[in-house]
Amino acid sequence: xxxxxxxxxxxxxxxxxxxxxxxxxxxxxxxxxxxxxxxxxxxxxxxxxxxxxxxxxxxxxxxxxxxxxxxxxxxxxxxxxxxxxxxxxxxxxxxxxxxxxxxxxxxxxxxxxxxxxxxxxxxxxxxxxxxxxxxxxxxxxxxxxxxxxxxxxxxxxxxxxxxxxxxxxxxxxxxxxxxxxxxxxxxxxxxxxxxxxxxxxxxxxxxxxxxxxxxxxxxxxxxxxxxxxxxxxxxxxxxxxxxxxxxxxxxxxxxxxxxxxxxxxxxxxxxxxxxxxxxxxxxxxxxxxxxxxxxxxxxxxxxxxxxxxxxxxxxxxxxxxxxxxxxxxxxxxxx
Length: 335
Ligand code: DOR
Ligand code: ZN
Known about the structure:
The protein is α/β, with parallel strands linked by helices. Helix content is 36%, strand content 16%.
């Protein structure tokens, strides 16, 4: 049994830089036609010069795969219209992080007050640059995304022409917002479709499943699955594959991030097959994103076959999700 996907897209990906970039990037560029590249390097990508240089480093590490890195800038509230007009030629979106909510986000915004962000957000709206948001407050960890919903609503109401993507949503409340505001969209990761907080801390602590936002409750996961599996047009796949070296995960002070890049398509296929929804996988991994971002990806056909694949224990210094485990599907070839 085989399944062919046309131009899969990963709409939220961390490929890092330097040695880590070389270790991980080809795992995505082999099987994806493009990916939204996160800008949370140290220092974050805030200039066109840094953005172009980073894109070049990514392209020169990709073994000539057909792959388009869709670049993003790290949101700053003092970007002006002229800068953004020039930046628009090179970017697909701008990513907003509240300061300190996750890895390398200290340079993010310290106040989510709409008036303080209005200048940049109005310019982005006029220039049709999508806003991607890491939507978490600094509240109690299980409530951070829920508390952020009122901020999403303010953004959606104040900037009705701005496309806003709620990144890596984990709660039923975020799913509910999608029906209420035309200009809100969302990415969903593989791991949030599979795990709850129980899998992370309910038994022995699983550092490789620790990420931001933390996985939530069964009822939240069910809502994410409902929209992902049903070809609901406002959600798209974004892995948030976030590699960290093993010694930064298996230690006191574990870094947040699940590394899924090498296994996402195989496991998504397994998941959609389990729910008898294989016909809707194409929408989730590519078609919805093409419509939301209004772009045509490179042509790439990825064929998966129902054949066992044993996940390696590590890729360089990075431990993938399902390390050492057997998957039911593998990648047969890419054209
Ligand atoms: O778990 C996460 N890891 N969540 C994020 O938002 C950032 C990411 C990273 O960069 O490691
Ligand atoms: Zn991320």
